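Q: Convert this sequence to structure tokens.
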Amino acid sequence: MNIVKRRLSYSIVNGRLRLKLRWNGQVLTMGLGINIDKESESGKIKWDGRRCVNGTRHGKEKVASSIINRQLMEIENKIDMAFYKFEVMGYIPVLEDMKRELIADYEEKQAKKAADTVESLFNRFIGEESDEKGWSFNTVKSVMIILKLVKQFDPKAKINQIDRDWLSRFVNYQKHHRLAGQANDASGKSKGYANNVIAKNCRIFKWFLKWAVNKKIVDRALVDDFRPTLKTIKKPVIFLTWEELMKFWNIDLSAMQDIRLDEARDIFCFQCFTSLRYSDAHNLRKVQVTDEAITITAQKTATPLEIELNKYSRAILEKYAGTQSEYALPRMTVSNLNQFLKKLGKRLEIDTPVSVSQFYGSARQDEVRPKYELLSSHAGRRTFICNALAMGISPSVVMKWTGHSEYSAMKPYIDIADDIKKKSMKLFDEQ
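A:
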């Protein structure tokens, strides 16, 4: 096999990078669609003739040198593979051969990449991943919110325009803007998101970028570089103590006009006595219930669970056993459930002051709110875990009920249970 001698060089014409390939008297010139700045405004070299200088950015879009250099490496590898193909055949390619191998393929990929809007790719991401991973409705909703936010920030964004600078501007945008129609500040201007919300939004967008990396649509370096620094404070874990839970359990709602209030209490208490998330309680069917336990596959994690019944959870199931519905519990939207829980909590005077702190940019905001204002369906599962641990039930047993696979996920609850035990022991000193 004879090696074909070749020489490759780059030139910059009007800020655009061009490649020139010479071999056996043949010359192929092709534009690469890449903007290159030879030097900075201060005169520092940004292009060494073969590669971008590390740490530099190029063109109006300020594309990182690492991204451009990787593109050039991929192009050069493509050239080497094309020549190797002909060398194995014992054939020296002519100009038309290399055009077919390189230009047509490269221009087709570049055109396709340029046409890929973030919106179209995001919709593809949602469609493929939701089908493959079995996303819940709430997961789809959360991801769709990020898509709407991206469209509001940059309506015509294309995937090949996303770089470190774009991501930085997207993060900063959220510090001063929310989705249209969401809460405004006192002056009527759009209020930015708290840092913990921005961090969550960025995690979802990074999830999308990782998918795009696996599809070979974006460069992995882009994902690795996306690490926004945001000051955050852990939210307090909202749960009911056993005494507060018994208030919910024992309240007489028979005189109430709205039967949905009673149903909301039962759904929430069932979560508190079984550890089920709202989605799993909402979808629990009677066929999944036996005299001793309920058997489900957790919707969020796809983990199979068997949760033994106690006298409280069994009583709730028996209350609705005679209904015509295939579902074991009443059906209610999570937003309605949360509203009813706050209403019940206020009526039961579950008003322990809770300090809530969060950062907006670099500004810290502190407020104290009564516990009932913070009650939601999330508190049901947390109530089960905290009370089970406070009763002395082993974390490993609790994890079998909840489906947690990592002990570290139980650590915050264990700390709470230890605090409950300390406070309980002090009661002896008051006698």
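The chain has 15 helices and nine strands.
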